[in-house]
Amino acid sequence: MRIDNAQLRDQLIEHLSQFVTEERRARIEEVLAQRTRHITVVLEDLYQTQNISAVMRTCDCYGIQDAYIVENRNEFEVHKDISMGADKWLTLHQYPHAEHNMRQCIEDLHQKGYTVVATLPDEKKTTIHDLPINQKTAFLFGTELTGLSDEAIQYADCNALIPMYGFTESFNISNSAAIILSNFSERLRHSDVDWKLSSEEEKEIYFDWLQKSMRDADAVIRHFLSTHP
How far are the Cα atoms of 3, 11, 136, 214 from residue 54, in angstroms, in the given order? Predict the structure, then answer.
């Protein structure tokens, strides 16, 4: 359940904390301290659930909080055995099938201050190692067979590729995401860039994770609201 009133949300955090073990709260705080919105991913129209789920798992492992899902021919679906529940801890932004939904997603990212990078070869041979880490960056990944749409490429700010030295022309989507997020995340965490969440973002996510760590959270919240007008 989402609560927009910050003061009320903070009261609920204190209340819900009684229903979660001390060890669980400590684990939530530990993971939250490593979360970032400095990097994000956009998945455009993926159809293989194992790839979607593997990317979700990679995002969680590298502390990436947000993933943007653009759906056209294919609906977003997670393969639970592969994701291992990782999607549960992410903030997912979904763009269902609609005209120019990819452009809308990119425009939303621009409003949030992201530089949008299309992951594909280009004539300038810009690699992921060349990308600066001091600016918020969103990486676009396209469908397994045809790659990114023309609209995604048109509205992205730049292209970047993963250096490869074999006969095969590309990595699969999940491998590409893992390589890029590993490279960018490690460079970021060893820099002096302020990549961590704001205190307000931490509280919002902490509240969400508390609810996901207990049974019948909605019922507990409704009871609290009914007794605390």
Answer: 30, 36, 23, 25
Kindly report the number of other CB atoms within 10 A of residue 93's CB atom: 15
Strand runs labelled E in 109-173: 115-119, 137-141, 158-160
The answer to whether residues 214 and 19 touch, using CB atoms and an 8 Å cutoff, is: yes
The per-type count for the chain, helices as H runs and strands as E runs, is: 9, 6
Record the pTM: 0.91
Contact indicator for 28, 206 with CB cutoff of 8 Å: yes
Residue 220 CB neighbour total at 10 angstroms? 18
- Count CB-CB contacts under 10 A for residue 148: 21
Are the C-beta atoms of residues 102 and 70 closer than 8 Å to each other?
Answer: yes
Sheet holding 115-119, edge to edge: 91-95, 66-70, 39-44, 137-141, 115-119, 158-160
Output the tens digit of pLDDT for each of the chain's 229 residues: 888 888 999 999 999 999 999 999 999 999 999 999 999 999 988 877 788 888 999 999 999 999 999 988 777 776 565 556 788 899 999 998 888 999 999 999 999 999 999 988 665 678 899 999 999 999 999 886 778 999 999 999 999 988 888 877 778 888 999 999 999 999 999 999 999 999 999 999 999 999 999 989 999 999 989 887 6
